[in-house]
Each structure stands twice: as structure tokens, then as C-alpha cells.
Amino acid sequence: MSVFLGIDVGSVSTNLVLINEKNDVIYSLYLRTQGRPIEAIKSGLNSMLSYMPLGIDVKGVGATGSGRQLASMIVGADVVKNEITAHAVAAVNQIPNVHSVLEIGGQDSKIIILDNGIVSDFAMNTVCAAGTGSFLDQQAARLGLTIQEFAALALEAKNPVRIAGRCSVFAESDMIHKQQLGHSTSDIVAGLCEALVRNYLNNVGKGKDIKSPVIFQGGVAANPGIKIAFAEALGMEIIVPKHYSVMGALGAAILAREAVAHKEKSSFLGFSLINSDFKTSSFECKGCPNLCEVIELFADNTLKARWGDKCSKWTDIIEDAI
Amino acid sequence: MRIGIPRALSYYKYFPLWKEFFTKFGAEVVVSPPTNKKMLDLGSKYVVDEICLPVKVYFGHVNYLKDKVDYLFVPRIVSVERNEYTCPKFMGIPDMLVNIENLPKLIGPTIDLTKRDNKLWKVVLEVGSLFSKNTYLILKAWSDASMSLKKYNQDWLNQSFPEELMITNIDKKEQGVLNIAVIGHEYILYDKFLSMNLLEKLAKLKVSVFTIEMVNQKTINKEVSIIPKKIFWNFAKNAIGAAFYYNKMGEISGFINISSFGCGPDSISNSMTVHHLKNTQITKPILNLTIDEHTGEAGINTRIEAFYDLLKRRVV
């Protein structure tokens, strides 16, 4: 069977999806990146390999997410696309007439507005990552809860408290005050969900024309408290698609299928790469006062790629050598 | 005599004027090199906290120049048009500089044209008196200098970037695949470090860029006149006027707003622009980019790429 692989290396999670020729998901995996993207990709491929029935043939690979360059160099991707495009492609694949996509990931949040399946507007959070998944993670950890317990708690709330959501530092101190006043944890958690949604709609969703059908995706969509808060704030039904946590990878897989249609052979390096030993190192280039941090990727002690230099003098040397 | 001019803030608007003026008196004009990380680090060290990135960088440039020149030219530009102001930080620059130790002598004239009675020639004579007692010579130098500035501005009005800025972009004669209006202060946009090389990134994608400076002042004033209240922040007024104008231009397919985190005037002008553009019949996508001290370019690259994809799918 011919399959297409999508890899989404995000700040919090690394996701892999396999689709068939009809864009049906036949395998998906959600892993924590834990600050080690290379290991996450390798262990993801390893789990995929042990699951895959014999006779599967990877015909194309797509990479997306903030670590997409790194992923593409390690696995050999046919297409490297930004998260917005990948998410939009996947959303249309799941709900063909979707109008608005709310996406909250580990470190960024975005809104995508579509018009007949084509992105007509989008926005991403600016410099600040307030109210994204990593903040929820931190708060759950601070309360001594797993993120799953944290999510479930919001549903038990009877009277959500109001929490300042504009800045995660303020939100945290506000939460501590509310705890010390004696509010129940579930009310605080639900209040936090509402604050995040308020902040999202004021910030990322500012001036955007949100219309039904609305999809909510990204890792944070696992949290039903946020879904309910969105539904209340917007007065609309919110759809969380089946593959909500791996939509970026799904989009990348679909884009890979489209990309290899014009190519003779996939650039995929094969599953043997799992056995390669990847190492990265970095150095500060002293060539000019910009002091760029240049990163080097080694596979089995051979230099494979470099990036991070503004002037591309290091990148060029390696590209010439290969 | 060596006069240092920091390559930051008002440099991008007025540099040819100042250079020509000082050179006429035989002074050597020393400009700091393009912004780099070291300058930003040094700037952040001396500047008051909670200030915008372009001002931090200005301090880095001053720091670079301080022991290489006899004088530093750091004008206090309060206003360049009647009843309009530049920006609170522009007004306070010479006062904030006292934080830097061992500064050379400052040439810091106050340029304030808010009132009808405030005449620019008085400032010109004040600065010129440092070099010459001959009023005629000073005014002649000024008039020659003004010609240089005019030529510089004319390059923009001819839809190209002045040579001094060292910007490579799509040749306007050779049509790009997309036309995007990029709205942002020149001291951000033309500083490759601050803008993370936005203009060249767009050029690589074969995008033709249209900026605020390419719209003439008359058009800008006419465009903003539809707003009931006068916008007294001069830079904000230019940004809004240019955006309104580009909105009507059919060949422009989208907008990129670039501004610095914590910019007061921009927080108003960006919202006003977006609000107005949404209320017209024409709907062109807008991408907002906020820059600050982060040097990772992944975030900005993702946004540019995605915006490009969006526009391309819409246009084709």
C-alpha cells in the first residue's frame, strides 16, 4: 500500500500521520517533544515502524511546525510548509465547508478564516505566548495535576472565577490570589479557561469574521473546558475534529501527496535513519558583530547540515560540499 | 572636525540632508555601521527600561560612535509639521542619552514646527554658527542640503529604494508575482537587523513592495481627511494615509504592518488602519508583525510564508 507521511515538529508535541491515497488517516501519533526534537522524530518513526503492516511504501514526506527545517533535513522531506497552510489544508480535509479554524498549540495560537476552502485571512499571536498550551501545562504542574486531570476539572466548575487573562504572568498571580481566598480548584481552572478564550478572541481573533462551521484544533482542543468557553463566548457550535491534535501533520501528509505528484521519487531517506546517530552542536560565529549562533547537524559523525547564520556563509559551505 | 550620526531613528528620513549640510563646512561625517547584535546589547545596557527596540538600538549606535568623533548630532525632533508631533521618544532622545558615560559634545538642536512662528531657519543658523559666522554661507549650505534630501525622497516617489539604504528589491519594471504594501516606520523597515530582513525576504519570493514613503504628502493628507478627528502623531498619520491609498490601488493584494513592541502611536494607527480597511468594500488581507529583542527568525518566516501562500492562492 502506498502511504504518505506528515511530520509536525512543534514546541510541545511532535506528531506523525500516515495517510493513504484517499487522504484517510491510517496511523497517527502524538508525542511530547520535550525539548529534544530529533529524539522525538526518531522514536516516532520507530513506533510507526513497529505498527506498520508489511508492504507499506512511503511515497512522500511533508514537514511542518516550528521544527520543520530540522525535521526535513533528518528524514528527507518532499515538502516543507508553514503551520498555517498545513492546518488549513487539514481542516478542509476534515470538514470541507469549514469557515473558521481556531487553533491553539503549544506556543502559538492562530485563527484561520476560509472562503470556499481557500484561506482568506489568518492571524497568529504576536510576541507573547500567553494563553497557549505550554502555559496550561505550567499551571497544571503548579497545581500538582496532570494535564488530563486539569482539563477534566473545568467541567466540574459551578461558578467560574474571573481571572486576568491578558498576560500569563498576571494570570498566574491572579490565580494564586483566588486560591488563597478559598475558591475551589475547579472554579479557578474553569475561570482560567474563560480567560484564555477571552484573551484569544481579543488578541488573535480581533476583527476577524468568525462564522459557522467553526473548528477548534491543536493540542489544547483536548481540553473540554476551553471548548465550552469558546462555545459560550461565540454563541456557536464548536467542532473538535477527530484528529484535532495532529492536524498539522495531517496537512503536511496531504501536501506531500500533492507535491510528489510532480516528482519522480520521494526524497525520503528511509526508515534506516532510525539507526543513525544524530548529533547537533552549535558555535558562535565571530565573523561579524552579529555573533550568529550556527547549528550543525551530524549523522553518524558526518556533517549533514548547518543553519542559523544570517549571512548564510556557513550554510553555503556545507551545501557546496554536498 | 568629525561629526557622528547614529544610523538609527531619524537617520533614515533625513540623513542626506544632514550629511550634505555638515560636509559643506568641511566637517567629516561619520555614520555608525548597520545595526548588529552587539549594538543592541550595548544599547539595552544604557537605555531606560520599558522602551521600544528602535530606541535601544539608537543607544547602541551612539555608544559605537562616542569615542570616534568630536561631536554627535542628536537632534530633538519634536515636530516637522504644524500641529503635529513625531513621537515622545524622538522628543526625549538627548535627555535620555545622559546615561552614557564619556559622551563627546552633542549637537542637539530642537526642531519644533508645531507653531506658525517657529521657523526652521532659526535652527539652521543656530547649528550653522558652530562652523561659520557667515549667515549667507550657512543658508546656502542648507539650501544645497535640501536638494540632496529632495533627490533622496524623489527615489521613493519614483517607486524605488534610495541607493543609500542598500536594499535590493524587485525591479519595479520587472513585475513581481505579488504586490504588497508594507506599512512601518522607516527606522524599522530599512534596518535589516530590526526588520529581520523583511524586504529582502519578500524580494526572494518575488514580491514587489510598496511603502509609506512612496506616497506623496498631498495624497496622504487627502486620504486621512476622511477621519473626523485630526491625527496629531505625524508618523501615524503617514502610515494611515498610505494604507488608505494602497487599499484603493487594485494591484496591491495585501498589507503587512510591521511595528515594534510597545510603540504607543502604532497601537493607535494600526488599529485605526485595520478598522477602516475592514469597513471598506475591498477586503485585502493584513498581516501584523511585531518585533522585539528576539533574534529567532522562525516566527517571522512562518508568518511571511503563510501570508504569501494565502495571497498567492487568492490571486491566482
What does this structure look like?
Chain A is α/β, with parallel strands linked by helices and 322 residues long. Chain A has three domains: 2-88 and 248-275, ATPase, nucleotide binding domain (Nucleotidyltransferase, domain 5, 2-Layer Sandwich); 97-240, Nucleotidyltransferase, domain 5, CATH 3.30.420; 278-321. Chain A has helices at 37-51, 68-75, 83-94, 133-142, 147-155, 168-181, 185-203, 224-234, 247-260, 313-321, and strands at 2-9, 13-19, 25-32, 57-64, 79-80, 100-104, 109-115, 118-124, 214-217, 238-239, 278-284, 293-299, 302-307. In chain A, helix 8 links the parallel strand 9 (214-217) and strand 10 (238-239). Chain B is an alpha/beta fold. Chain B is 46% helix and 14% strand. The mean pLDDT of chain B is 89.
Write the layout of secondary structure elements.
The complex is a heterodimer of chains A (322) and B (316).
Chain A: E1 2-9, E2 13-19, E3 25-32, H1 37-51, E4 57-64, H2 68-75, E5 79-80, H3 83-94, E6 100-104, E7 109-115, E8 118-124, H4 133-142, H5 147-155, H6 168-181, H7 185-203, E9 214-217, H8 224-234, E10 238-239, H9 247-260, E11 278-284, E12 293-299, E13 302-307, H10 313-321
Parallel strand pairs in A: 1-4, 4-5, 6-9, 9-10
Antiparallel strand pairs in A: 1-2, 2-3, 6-7, 7-8, 11-12, 12-13
Chain B: E1 2-5, H1 11-24, E2 28-31, H2 37-46, H3 53-65, E3 71-73, E4 76-79, H4 88-96, E5 105-107, E6 110-112, H5 120-128, H6 135-157, E7 178-183, H7 186-189, H8 198-204, E8 207-211, H9 217-224, H10 234-248, E9 254-260, H11 264-279, E10 286-291, H12 298-315
Parallel strand pairs in B: 1-2, 1-3, 3-5, 4-6, 7-8, 7-9, 9-10
Helix pairs in contact in B: 1-6, 2-3, 5-6, 9-10, 10-11
